[in-house]
Amino acid sequence: MDSPCSSRGAASLSSTPIPGRVESYEGGDKKCISDVRRTFCLFVTFDLLFITLLWIIELNVNGGIKNQLNLEVLHYNYRASFFDIFLLAVFRFAALILAYAVCKLRHWWAIAVTTAVSSAFLIAKVILSKLLSQGAFGYLLPITSFVLAWIETWLLDFKVLPQEAEEHNRFLSIMSAADRAPLLHHGHLSDGQFYSPPESVADSDEELDDKHEPEKGLI
């Protein structure tokens, strides 16, 4: 047996007029982003924070943060520094948040650019640099950055864009249904619609006259 809450929810959903549902779709689309897009933006933020955390741990393990910052940032060396992997994460974060949170882009070209740049840079760095001879972080940072970039691509291409396209198609179907639906004007009913002839009084003079007229004809 359905609960009272579910019954009330179904009743309110079925009783909601089509123009009201159209306005709710339009208002929700203008005010905020979808839940799946918000999840994607949170994962992009996690990408930046996780790479930053790993880089700070690497700085602290290999001789102290201050000394390693001086070595990796001020005296940057492409073959030995992890600073560029951190900058790559910053680039992904800035580009994707700008494209998909601020501009609310509904296309895959931005994620394609960031993933292609990240993949090409990391593959070239692993081949040309000496990171693999610098311990566990030489493996961990490039592999983690590469995997996170492709997970972002998978999330956008297989989750965000298809779900938002489905919601947009549903919105268009509601719009077309609203255009086809007749406009029902609930006006005040006139008194004539409720008029009923007055009841005749029992044994009135008119009824008696009607009853005696045939008798008079027989006489």
Characterise this structure.
There is one protein chain. Helix 2 packs antiparallel against helix 7, helix 3 crosses helix 4 and helix 5 packs antiparallel against helix 6. The protein has eight helices and no strands. The protein has a domain of 144 residues. The N terminus and C terminus are likely disordered. The protein is mainly α. The chain is 74% helix and 0% strand.
Topology of this structure?
Layout lengths: L3 H12 L2 H14 L3 H27 L3 H10 L8 H20 L6 H20 L7 H45 L24 H14 L1
Helix pairs in contact: 2-7, 3-4, 3-5, 3-7, 5-6, 5-7, 6-7
Brief write-up:
The protein is an all-alpha fold. It has a domain at 33-176. The chain has eight helices and no strands.
Global geometry: elongated
Low-confidence stretches: 1-16, 20-30, 214-219
Rg of Cα set: 37 Å
Number of strands: 0
Secondary structure category: mainly alpha
pLDDT averaged over residues:
78
Tell me the strand percentage band: under 5%
| H/E series | HHHHHHHH
* Helical coverage, percent range: over 70%
Largest sheet: none
- What separation lies between the terminal Cα atoms? 75 Å
> Helix tally?
8
